[in-house]
Amino acid sequence: MRFGFWPNPRSNYEDTRLLCAHAEATGYDGIWLADHFLPDEDELIPVHESWVTLSALARDVPRVRMGHLVTGNTYRHPAVLANMAATLDNLNGGRTVLGLGSGWQQNEHEAYGIEYGTTGGRLRMLEEACQVIKGLYGNDYFDFKGEYYQLARAPLEPKPKQEKMPLMIGGGGEKVTLKIAATYADEWNVWGNVDTLTHKMKILDRHCEFIDRDPATIERCAVALLFLSDNDDYLKRVREAAPGDRSIIGGISEVRDTVAAYQEVGVEELIIPDFTLGTLIGSDQKKRDLMEQFITEVATVAA
């Protein structure tokens, strides 16, 4: 089982770099970024563009896999995105995962004049984007005539360094998103606790069976908020307030059991965002300490 780290997108680059380097040094297997341009609330908070940030991290963090949870398909033409991801894969020595989702944050579409459309329209765009990306990676030239995208003898060189760069589909929509994942994904990601993952994976498996695809050919990846502490009063408050369907809460032993349960149901990578790990300000080491405690006392034992 792999373990990933997701730095807060509202951090400056130096903090992000230090945290990702710490994750790599302490044994995490991947770093993952959100793909947004502004917060989903009306606040003037800096948010770095994620693909440029990931390119810098490719230089500064030389070992782990890296990708997005997930790239918003509406923000970039899929042929442009395919080129970006292939370039990054060559720059980082074949460590890129192309995470892709339909896009959901309406306020940044409106602020930047990007068409938001309907949920159904964005999902149809996502499916076409998967076809475009795979077609460009799998052919010298690729033609495509879709409702949203059209390509005419389009090349893509250089191809990704990996023989097959993973395409990760993010989302848990049971009727359409999981069907798209069953059809195109090499990896699939969703927020959720063990019960959520168990339920969603059964539906993903059924979609695979309907199209005669072996479900085992899709890696399953989960994201959950981590609340790790030996303070019972704090844990009690968290259990009352935190979203239980997407949280891991407890002391070392309880969290270790939870992580083992993810692995038991078939999750192959668990990604921990830093959003609930405290702040890193000056000499405050709480976030780094919790990152290291999780990977050394929980993850390595549970895995």
Give an overview of the whole structure:
With 303 residues, the chain is an alpha/beta fold. The chain has a single domain, classed as Luciferase-like domain (TIM Barrel). Helix content is 44%, strand content 19%. The chain contains ten helices and 13 strands. The protein has helices at 13-26, 50-60, 78-91, 106-112, 119-138, 177-184, 194-210, 232-241, 252-265, 286-302, and strands spanning 2-6, 30-33, 65-68, 71-72, 96-101, 141-145, 150-155, 167-170, 187-191, 219-223, 225-228, 247-250, 269-273. The protein has an eight-stranded parallel beta barrel, surrounded by eight helices. Helix 7 (194-210) links the parallel strand 9 and strand 10 (219-223). Helix 9 packs across helix 10. The protein is globular and about 60 Å long. The mean pLDDT is 94.
Describe the protein's topology.
Layout (H helix, E strand, L loop, with lengths): L1 E5 L6 H14 L3 E4 L16 H11 L4 E4 L2 E2 L5 H14 L4 E6 L4 H7 L6 H20 L2 E5 L4 E6 L11 E4 L6 H8 L2 E5 L2 H17 L8 E5 L1 E4 L3 H10 L5 E4 L1 H14 L3 E5 L12 H17 L1
Parallel strand pairs: 1-2, 1-13, 2-3, 3-5, 4-5, 5-8, 8-9, 9-10, 10-13, 11-12
Antiparallel strand pairs: 6-7
Helix pairs in contact: 1-10, 3-5, 6-7, 9-10
